[in-house]
Amino acid sequence: MVKNVLFLRAFCRFGNGIKIHYSLQIMFTSEDLHLFNEKGIDIHAVEEQLSSFKKGFPFLKIASSASVGNGILSLDEQQAQYYFDLWEGYLKDNHKVVKFVPASGAASRMFKDLFGFLSADYDRPQTDFEKKFFGSIEHFAFYADLDEACLKNEGKGIADLIAAGNYKAVVANLLEEKGLNYGSLPKGLLKFHRYATTARTAMEEHLTEGALYAASSDGEVNIHFTVSHEHLPHFKELVAAKKADYERRYGVRYNISFSEQKPSTDTIAVDMNNEPFRENGKPLFRPGGHGALIENLNDIDAEIIFVKNIDNVVPDKLKEPTVRFKKIIGGILVSLKSEINRYTAILKSGKYTIDDLREIIQFLHKKLFVRNEETKHLEDAELALYLLRKLDRPIRVCGMVRNAGEPGGGPFIAYNPDGTTSLQILESSQIDMSNPEAKKQFEMGTHFNPVDLVCAVRDGQGAKYDLPKYVDKNTGFISRKSKNGRELKALELPGLWNGAMSDWNTVFVEVPAETFNPVKTVNDLLRPQHQ
Q1: Shortest CA distance to 457 belongs to which of 247, 272, 224, 246?
Q2: Taking the domains of the chain in order of start, what are their residue ranges?
Q3: Neighbouring C-beta atoms of residue 172, cutoff 10 Å
Q4: For the range 128-135, what are the long-range contacts, defined as Cβ-Cβ under 8 Å and sequence gap of 24 or more?
Q5: Long-range own/partner contacts, residues 168-171 (CB < 8 A, 24 or more apart)
Q6: Angstrom distance (rounded) from CA 500 to CA 509
Q7: Distance CA 422, CA 400 (A)
Q8: Parallel, antiparallel, or unpaired: how do β-strands 278-279 and 282-283 relate?
Q9: 33-to-51, 264, 292 alpha-carbon distances in Å
Q10: DSSP letter at 195?
Q11: Rounded to an integer, what is the distance from CA 174 to the centroid of its chain?
């Protein structure tokens, strides 16, 4: 029996035996609807996703790449010290600050080259990557653990295995379950850095960072990690083993929490005809990418939230620039928030003058790079409502690093659906490279996004913004994957610092390259920044 969505859902709810439903010419069974309900996914969201596969996502129109003086703030020493001190003062007032670390991704991509070596038809290192790995293997922080695993499983240590030409046994003990199992663990649980008497995981380096720039005056440090369900016990075990040591070292109390990506943010997969991809008769859903974490971010109880990737950490001897600039961008956010709160209070009171409106317009133009040529045609009351709408939003201050060939999104001034222009972090896939002007603007980019954000998520009265309301749903991404040998299309939600924060007020600040030290491959741990 064919019914519309609402009619069907009502009948299913009352158990009247409706078996099928046609939506967008797609057949869904009552079992499908039960699956949607189990995952907390509304059928309208599924229909929206199916429509996106058919329509695709539009390229974003860019006005220009952002650069110093045109969307990117560059500070002199006096300005930097002012904002540094402002952040120090803010922390003394015991505001709720949280450090938010996406840490759910598996580290398997870090070891892509080593997995390739394991399956290769040769037994000795051939590529430059393989030669570098084995030539410097004793410099990895996990060396002692790996040596112990090799002795246990092979009866020989690393040096003896290499001397015997048994290189693959070393790699197998690094990657596979019989050894360290690094090929299946998340980056947060891998040992990144070696110290005189110990070695630290990436997660432990974030505990240290939190104590250095996010501790309240009474010594509380709030850190939240997003993790996958299968690895949650391992993260909790590491916290239980290490937390007290770091609390004693830094004189703080940690409040460490975890969350998992919500099943309700999974997206439906389709076949090459854009029909739901089914496995054993059931529609296949896949994780929606890091953009799904806007829901996790929305659940955080805080005034200010720092966001930083799990793999962008350095040893203590190199932390000073990172800590200093975290405090500086925190101070910029505090200053911006104070100005915005003052302006929104004026607008909400209704007791504003034409000079007030002009001042606020200048603030939007010069500080936030939000422009709309149509505002000149608005009456005062309409203009005040427009300005309030633009000011009363979440705020983010984003560190930007000079381009040095690293992958990642870039800072741009882009057009929004409402005709305004504003600062946005865009990936190359969002830009129409067949358009010569857009390609030129992309290539003119001087900076890139190292995922170095600090966010204000409450309004002037302290009420929390509902962050999913500020997502631009037209900024998703479709990719091709395979499942058991069958091709499929997957849909990624708007990226966390891309379209998921599209409708936020944004400020870009130049930060030094020393603050960006990602670990994309295992050999990156051999860079001087990680030694």
Answers
A1: 224
A2: 5-55, 108-175
A3: 19
A4: 129/521, 129/523, 132/523, 132/526, 133/522, 133/523, 134/162, 134/167, 134/170
A5: 168/117, 168/118, 168/123, 170/134, 170/137, 170/146, 171/114, 171/117, 171/118
A6: 20
A7: 16
A8: antiparallel
A9: 18, 13, 22
A10: -
A11: 27
Residue 396 main-chain phi, psi, to 5 deg: -135, 140
Distance CA 116, CA 215 (A): 43
227-282, pLDDT tens digit by residue? 999 999 999 999 999 999 999 999 999 999 999 999 999 999 999 999 999 998 89
Q: Rounded to an integer, what distance in angstroms lies between the CA atom of residue 191 and that of residue 177?
A: 16
pLDDT at 522: 97
Q: Looking at residue 26, what is its pLDDT?
A: 54
**Both structure tokens of 88:** 């120090």
Cβ pair 396, 304 in contact under 8 A:
no
415/420 Cα distance (integer angstroms): 6
Strand pairing category for 304-308 and 452-456: antiparallel
Residue among 497, 489, 498, 491 at smallest CA distance from 477: 491
Please, what is the Cα angle at 198 between 104 and 513, to 5 degrees? 60
CA atoms of 349 and 351, how far apart (whole Å) = 5
The per-residue pLDDT for range 346-393, each reduced to its tens digit, is 999 999 999 999 999 999 999 999 998 887 888 999 999 999 999 999
The 3-state secondary structure of 48-116 reads: HHHHHHHHCCCCCCEEEECEECEEEECCCHHHHHHHHHHHHHHHHCCCCEEEEEECCCEHHHHHHHHHH
* The one-letter amino acid at 258: F
3-state per-residue secondary structure call for 213-232:
HCCCCCCEEEEEEECCHHHH
User: Which pLDDT score is estimated for 409?
Assistant: 75
SS3 state of residue 391: helix
For the chain, the distance separating the N- and C-terminal CA atoms, rounded to the nearest angstrom, is: 66
| Predicted local confidence at residue 2, as pLDDT | 34
**Angstrom distance (rounded) from CA 144 to CA 152:** 12
Q: At what angle do helices 380-391 and 320-349 cross, to 10 degrees?
A: 150
